[in-house]
Amino acid sequence: MRSKQTRFETVTEPVDPPGRRRSHHGVLAAIAVGGAIGAGARYGAALLWPTAAGSFPWTTFCVNVAGCLLIGVLLVALTEVWTAPVWVRPFLATGVLGGFTTFSAYCLDIERLVTGGRTGLALGYLAATLLAALAAVVAGAWATRWLLVPAARRAR
C-alpha cells in the first residue's frame, strides 16, 4: 500500500505596491450614509403604520418585501445595464436598502408573537416573509432584465 503524500503550497495574497494602497474610506462612508437614510425610512414607515401587539407585523413585512424587490431591480440595473461609480452599489444596495430592510425587526416580531402565545402566526410570518422576499428579489431582477436589458443591447 502506497502512502499518500500531501503537498502544501504557500499562497500569498496580492498586495498593493508601496505608495499605491487603495483607501476604502469613501465606500465605507457611502454605506454608512446610505444605511442612515434606509434606517430612517424604515423608522418612518413604522411610525406611519404601527403594528398592534399580537397582530401580523404588516409594516415590517411590506418594508422587507419592497426592499427585496428594489434590491433585485437595482442589482440587475447596476451589473447588467449601466456602469456606475464604485460607491453607488454599496451606497444603494448595502447602505440604503440594507438599512431599509430589517432582519432584526423581523426576528423581534417573531419573538414577540411567540412569547405572546401566537406561535402559529409567528411561523406563518416567518415563512411568508422568507417566500415573499425571495419572490420579490427574483421578480425585481426578472422584470428589470425584461424591461431594460434588451433596450440596452439594442442601443449598442
Largest sheet: none
Cα(first) to Cα(last) distance is: 62 Å
Q: What's the overall geometry?
A: globular
Computed CA radius of gyration, to the nearest angstrom: 22 Å
Counting helices, strands and paired strands, the structural category is: mainly alpha
- Count of runs of 4 or more consecutive helical residues: 5
Beta-strand content bin = under 5%
Helical content stands at over 70%
Number of strands: 0
Task: Give the rounded overall mean pLDDT.
Answer: 87
Low-confidence stretches: none
Care to give the gist of this entry?
This protein is mainly alpha-helical.
Please explain how this structure is put together.
- The chain is built from five helices and no strands.
- With 156 residues, the chain is mostly helical.
- Helix 2 runs parallel beside helix 5 and helix 4 runs antiparallel to helix 5 (119-155).
- The chain starts with 24 loop residues before the first helix and ends with a helix.
- The model has no long low-confidence stretch (mean pLDDT 87).
Topology of this structure?
Elements: H1 25-48, H2 58-81, H3 88-100, H4 103-115, H5 119-155
Helix pairs in contact: 1-3, 2-3, 2-5, 4-5
List its salient traits.
156 residues, mainly alpha
